[in-house]
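Forum: Protein Structure Q&A
Topic: Joint prediction for protein chains with partners

I've read a bunch of threads here and the consensus seems to be that you should model interacting components together rather than docking separate models afterwards. I'd like to see that in practice. Below is the full input, 838 residues plus whatever partners are listed. Could one of the regulars post the assembled result?
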Amino acid sequence: MPEAARREDPALSGDGARESLALVSALPRVPLLHLLRPKWLTARVRARGGERGRGARIALLGITGVLFWAFVLVVVFRLLLYFRRVPDIGPLLAGKLLGIIFVSFFSILLLSNIITALSSFFVARDLDLLVSAPVDWLRLYGAKLLETAVHSSWMVVLMAVPIFVAYGVAYEGGLWFPLVALATFIPFLLIPAVVGSAITLLLVRVFPARRTRDILSVIAVLAAGGLVLLFRMVRPEQLARPEGFRSLVDFIAVLKTPTSPLLPSEWVQRAVMSSLLGIPDVLPYYLLWSTAAAFVVLGALLHRSLYTTGFTKAQESSERWARGTHLKRLAMAVLAPLGTVRRELVMKETRVFFRDTTQWSQLILLGVLVIVYVFNIKFLPLRGEGVTFFLVNVIPFLNLVLAGFVLASIAARFIFPGVSLEGRTMWLLKSSPLRMRELLWAKFWIGTLPLLLLALGIVFVTNALLQVTPFMMYVSLFTITLMTFALAGLALALGTLFPQFETENAAQIPTSFGGLVYMMGAIALIGAVVVLEARPVYGYVSARAFGGVADPLEMIIGFGLAAALCIGTLVGSVTIAIRRLQAVEL
Amino acid sequence: MIELTALTKRYGGFTAVDAIDLTVPKGELFGFLGPNGAGKTTTLRMIAGILQPSGGTVRIAGIDIAADPIAAKAKLGFIPDRPFIYEKLTGAEFLRFVAGLYDQGGNAVERRMTELLALFDLLHWKDELVESYSHGMRQKLIISSAFLHRPEVIVVDEPMVGLDPKAAKVLKDLFREYTRRGHTIMMSTHTLEVAQSLCDRVAIIQGGKIRACGTMTELRAHAAAGEEGLEDIFLRLTGDNAARAVVEVLDA
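Posted by a regular:
Agreed with the consensus. Here's the joint model:
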């Protein structure tokens, strides 16, 4: 500031207190949205990006999105139409369904916000700049909270749109209904963002953010526990069995009882249903907005008192690692036949995987997913009246589809990001005499072998629980083996074709556009394999049920084509991936 | 030996490197200078086989990198300007992994690794995860990895960034001694004092084209610079008016 201006400025020429006060007010007042501007500009550049095949990608994404929305809309709408025709309990069932949907949304949002807040508040690359700039704590909190909320909520928002539309149309919500939906949904999104950020802040106080293994394992366990708790809170089995209630009055009483009166999901449900049924009720709006406002204030206060220490701890180094010489020697001996290059690749992949907490924590969640899946199969009502031999044999076949989906989602989590995670170190691999073929095959086998073991385990256990015939057991094991190789190859190829080299978080890679393409491709592959095998399996089961002999030619053609499809997918995928990786420039 | 013939790199309509011809003979320490965005890193990354040229050829120790990339890269060590390495490996594990990429392992690698880590004061850190290393330590680890397999040619992009004075001195001595033993080093740097004191020859690149190339004496003659140092020659050749601009900015 020039000396003349300093003399003219009364705030700078007074006593000490006045001077410091004036200095505070003279600090730059950075608008909150200004802090988010780089994110917005980055998103805009990405959206405008002129890379090859972008039009096709947008078209594909658009079509997929519209189809998905249409599917959800139609399913929910038909269900609601059915509920409307049921006197007395129809609206109760519609409300209950909405409550269940929003309890699920709330738990997803909470978990997603906890994980995202760790990145946006503590380890994001822009934090050094923001924390060192004269940005006050409140604006930093506001900006990072908004960033966390947007990153964590966009998928839930996309899911919620067709559901709100279905409710609005089915119950003739009128022109005001979109406003009702907005008025309930905005605070509903804000509350888990604040709570999630606060939980992360408290966790980072206990553990340094870079030792996220501990934090994320706590989060994962919390999530697993939360899922079980949530399932119990909703008590879906009671709703599915009205005959289990002593009378209709009991059933209605259960429906009327709020599932979780203290959760914002219940308030959204009450607000939406009261609006749709024409029974004005302002309490849920009041609860939603006042809770959101109070939480933002409390979250900001917590941020003010804990963030500086937490951020400092987040900069601390990681734990030291023991040398693990025995394990290393064992691994070296086991992998020795592979040769030096492959052995080192395998060891590197294994170490990086198990030390990367974002990957590691997902294992726990997947474990929960697999357990839930196996237990659901266990409790399928496949004995008793009305359950035919045919049904008993068809269910295991359909079980293959479910197992395929489970494997596809695991491959999306662990194999798909493989090449993307090499992004920042690609200079080393590309400047060394390593053949890209070696790298990709190493990634393929490291991902595929555990996946194959899991696949065979799941299918064997579930088939044993279903007490299938030996034929169905062989068919299932044969098919799932082929499918595993094909799904793994496809994940590797599409992960290479749609790499996310700049991502900070491995967990975000499967949710990219490429991840979506992979899941669609995987579904198509699983569908095609099942269709090809349906005919010979049907022939065999019919022959067993009604007497006769299954046509061997039909079997050879059906299973042969399925095998050819899987092997073709694997070979084609890996070939494309090798070519693409050889051409990658960074 | 490094031979570049009409080496070109285009990004759409922009030519980053424009048909440059350059030969760095065996046993020479060659400096590659130029202002920001001149095409230095792009050239070095093409030599290292990370970027594919739009035209021209790169030969490492007589091997065309496009025709036989594996053989050419086996003779090469590359040190990038930004030390991105696997955060979840320890220093020792990273070096073993790099040795493995060159199909080397066993006791010889362990011994070499220990020597190099000791040279750069990293021995006590070798069993710690790279994520706990500072920028300079990572740089030292990458430098160690480039020397691990004793390549004939080393390509270095900004080697001194982040290094403490001791490590910088060690690196300079290492470069000098390595070239004295018949190996070739090509390095880009903005530290003109380093280039002047260390390099046998220097090339100055600007706008993707080589503006001048030769020993200090040849550069002085080229720039008609009398007894001026490399900084003045550099500024004269690249037409930089930085000194005047600084005064203007500060007075504004």
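Residues 210 and 314 of chain A are 6 Å apart (CA to CA).
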